[in-house]
Hints:
DUF3243; mainly alpha; 72% helix; 4 helices; Uncharacterised_YmfJ
Amino acid sequence: MSVLNNFQDWKNFLNERVEQAQGVGMDKETINDVAYQLGDYLSKEIDPKNEQERLLKELWDAADEQEQRMMAGLMVKLVHGGQNRQ
C-alpha cells in the first residue's frame, strides 16, 4: 500500500522524513524548502489518492509561490506535532 492512499500514513511518512532531515543537521529553512519542492512535485506529477490530498492540491494550485511555501511550512509543522513552534 502506498503512503499516498491514506492521509495519516502520509503524515507519518512525512514526519519520519522531517526527523531524518533534522538528524543529519538540516535546519528549519532547508526542511521547509525541501517540503516546498516535494509539494510542487506532488501537485504536478501525482494524482491525489484521497479527499485530503485533493484539497491540498486544489489549495496548492490556487496559491502563488509565497503561499505555497507557507503551506509547505505548515505541513511540516502539522506532521511534526508543532515541535517547530517558537
